[in-house]
């Protein structure tokens, strides 16, 4: 069990962080690759294993990562210590040099995460919005108890189920919360990652949609053309009038029953329209207790924003996922040092 003791100043400084970054997702993906029981990652795992098996010697570093006994926890710890990338620095895992570890993580990222990053980023951005809405509408207690079944808040202690034992007191530094698609544990705590504002620790929590919804089977929509007609008509022309109304109604999050009542349509029609919007990457769906709750993704919010501001983007192409600073920054690339 891990414990984070949060004082009043910490609670006032809790923030929803940017996504952890594709390299850290790649590290967590090592566990997802090894867990053959997970149905959610089954097709993704099959595709990654096929790419690795056909790569010859090129992805030997990825094969080594998959054999690390401590899995992602051990790899992440060694990776975060990656500031020393000289040829004499060792990562402490499998006896490889630190520069080789960083290269292996980059290779894992390219083969397992990068092909799907557009959709993954859209999902994680939606998860951020969902938690921000909870924090603003229901408060910190509900937020902390919404991070997953393995995370519990009993003031002043935040408990995270874990095989290891750890005790952390931020002492006024606050806490960053960041969702992860590939994390297999109940949560992962990075006490003070380099580059975080004020040295705030990061709690990474797993967040996956209720079903895969093509999240890991394609690149998804990285850009969306905006028509040159009137903005509201452009959105309706793109997704249809009813689905445009659904998208507008979901701006603040909504369950199936509430949505059907708002729009005056049957629950079956709501399910059909939300499935279409979800497959297009415009909304995400997750369970909250006994209800299924839909929220608009970052891509869907961009479409809604475009439809309300014709002067800014009319006739242009909406940008793909932005590149904000990661919650956990990538260690610097290996530096080749010449001997004297």
Automatic annotation (TrEMBL):
One of its GO terms (molecular function) is DNA binding. InterPro entries: ArsR-like_HTH, HTH_ArsR_DNA-bd_dom, Metal_resp_trans_reg, WH-like_DNA-bd_sf, WH_DNA-bd_sf. CDD domains: HTH_ARSR. Signal peptide: none annotated. Pfam families: HTH_5. Residues 310-340 are annotated as: Disordered. SUPFAM superfamilies: Winged helix' DNA-binding domain. The keyword Transcription regulation applies. Residues 319-340 have a biased composition (Pro residues). Keywords: DNA-binding, Transcription, Transcription regulation. Residues 233-309 form the HTH arsR-type domain. This is HTH arsR-type domain-containing protein. It comes from Streptomyces lydicus.
């Amino acid at each position: 069990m891990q414990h984070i003791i949060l004082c009043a100043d910490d609670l006032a400084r809790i923030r929803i962080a940017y996504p952890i970054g594709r390299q850290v997702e790649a590290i967590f993906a090592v566990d997802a690759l090894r867990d053959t029981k997970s149905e959610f990652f089954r097709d993704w795992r099959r595709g990654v294993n096929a790419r690795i098996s056909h790569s010859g010697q090129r992805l030997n570093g990825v094969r080594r990562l998959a054999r690390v006994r401590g899995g992602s926890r051990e790899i992440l710890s060694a990776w975060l210590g990656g500031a020393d990338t000289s040829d004499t620095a060792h990562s402490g895992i499998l006896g490889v040099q630190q520069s080789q570890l960083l290269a292996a993580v980059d290779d894992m990222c390219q083969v397992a995460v990068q092909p799907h990053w557009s959709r993954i980023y859209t999902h994680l951005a939606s998860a951020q919005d969902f938690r921000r809405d909870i924090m603003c509408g229901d408060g910190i207690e509900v937020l902390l108890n919404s991070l997953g079944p393995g995370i519990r808040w009993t003031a002043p202690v935040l408990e995270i189920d874990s095989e290891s034992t750890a005790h952390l007191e931020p002492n006024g530094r606050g806490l960053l919360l960041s969702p992860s698609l590939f994390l297999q544990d109940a949560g992962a705590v990075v006490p003070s990652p380099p580059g975080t504002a004020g040295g705030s620790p990061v709690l990474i929590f797993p967040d996956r949609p209720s079903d895969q919804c093509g999240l890991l089977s394609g690149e998804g929509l990285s850009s969306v053309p905006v028509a040159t007609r009137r903005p509201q008509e452009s959105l309706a022309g793109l997704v249809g009038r009813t689905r445009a109304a659904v998208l507008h109604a979901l701006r603040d999050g909504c369950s199936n029953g509430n949505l059907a009542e708002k729009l005056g349509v049957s629950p079956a029609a709501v399910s059909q329209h939300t499935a279409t919007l979800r497959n297009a990457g415009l909304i995400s769906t997750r369970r909250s207790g006994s209800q299924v709750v839909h929220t608009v993704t970052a891509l869907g919010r961009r479409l809604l924003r475009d439809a309300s501001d014709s002067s800014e983007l009319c006739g242009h192409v909406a940008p793909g996922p932005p590149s904000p600073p990661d919650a956990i920054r990538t260690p610097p690339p290996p530096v080749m040092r010449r001997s004297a």
